[in-house]
Amino acid sequence: MIPYYDKNGVTIYNADCRDVFPSLSPVDAIVADPPYAETSLKWDRWPDLWPSLCTSLSNNLWCFGSFRMFLERSLEFSSWTLAQDIIWEKHNGTNCFNDRFRRVHEMAVHFYRGQWKDLYKKTVFTNDATKKTVRRKTRPPQWGEIGESSYESQDGGPRMQRSVIYCRSCHGSALHPTQKPDGIILPLLEFSVPPGGTVLDPFCGSGSTLFNARNLGLRSIGIEVSEEYCEIAAKRLDAEVKKEAA
Predict the structure, then answer these.
(1) Over the Cα atoms of the chain, what is R_g?
(2) pLDDT at position 121
(3) pLDDT above 70 covers what percent of the chain?
(4) Which of 144, 82, 139, 140 is CA-nearest to residue 113?
(5) Which among 184, 183, 228, 189 is positioned nearest to 205, based on CA atoms?
(6) Are residues 126 and 157 in contact, defined by beta-carbon separation less than 8 angstroms?
(7) 118-130 b/e with 16+ CB inside 10 Å = b?
(8) What sign does the CA torsion over 199, 200, 201, 206 have?
(9) Could you read off the pLDDT of 22-45 as tens digits, one per residue?
(10) Quick check: helix, strand or coil at residue 50?
(11) What is the pTM of this model?
């Protein structure tokens, strides 16, 4: 299949991802943001079976979605093992109902295949620790005894990335209706893709994953069924290269 775009370590295919999967070589990780199929919008249609069809391409999958989506599609993820989940907390949210809590979050769920110990993973840290001293004589019973210990964190110093990540949505600047901000994509790439590795985004939209992967020195492959958004992603990537060269 001829790529729609192929420059500077980024390849984009204008097609249904299920048609492209058989022609691709394995990648280090997949970061997917599929349609959740929760609205009546024409583009919001779940591509059946894609989670099982991409199992030959990677043992490492991050998938954005809602709790409802994962429950309804659980059988399609049966070829994968659940590793962990994170919550993206937005500064705003949308809700079609006024008789429920206002929804201001989305999930990103991490799946894997094979042995967890064989999977590439790099602990991600943030520089927002609060200065404090913690003394603990014993660990919780389920962790076993370790004796007395203490540590002091530095104000603004590093701490392990938490599973609830707050960052503003792209509301007002988004090029795609479900565009994810850099702040939620970067931790997934840093955690799961080795230096110089390759990430696949089967629903690349306006190219946010591809854009961030390139900035990390990674190779990326994007697949997008809409030619309009393939063009938007291509122009976005080219514009950034020109800006860096200026």
Answers:
(1) 20
(2) 95
(3) 85
(4) 82
(5) 228
(6) no
(7) ebeeeebeeeeee
(8) positive
(9) 999 999 999 999 999 988 888 899
(10) helix
(11) 0.86
How many CA atoms does the CB half-sphere of 99 hold within 13 Å? 0
What backbone torsions phi and psi does residue 229 show, to the nearest 5 degrees?
-80, -25
Element holding 212 (H helix, E strand):
helix 208-215
Q: Find the mean pLDDT for residues 151-157.
A: 60
Torsion of CA 163, 166, 171, 177, to 10 degrees: 0
Question: What three-state secondary structure class fits 236?
Answer: helix
State the Cα–Cα distance between residues 227 and 14, nearest whole angstrom: 6
| Residues sharing a CB contact under 8 Å with residue 24, sequence separation 6 or more, in sequence order | 57, 200, 221
185 three-state secondary structure: helix
83: Cβ–Cβ under 8 A, 6 or more apart, which residues?
A: 110, 111, 112, 116
Please write the tens of the pLDDT for every residue from 186-216.
Answer: 999 999 999 999 999 999 999 999 999 999 9
Best CA proximity match to 64, nearest among 171, 178, 216:
178
Residue 135, CA distances (Å) to 129, 130, 153, 200 in order: 17, 15, 12, 44
Q: Which of 103-107, 157-161, 181-185 has the lowest mean pLDDT?
A: 157-161
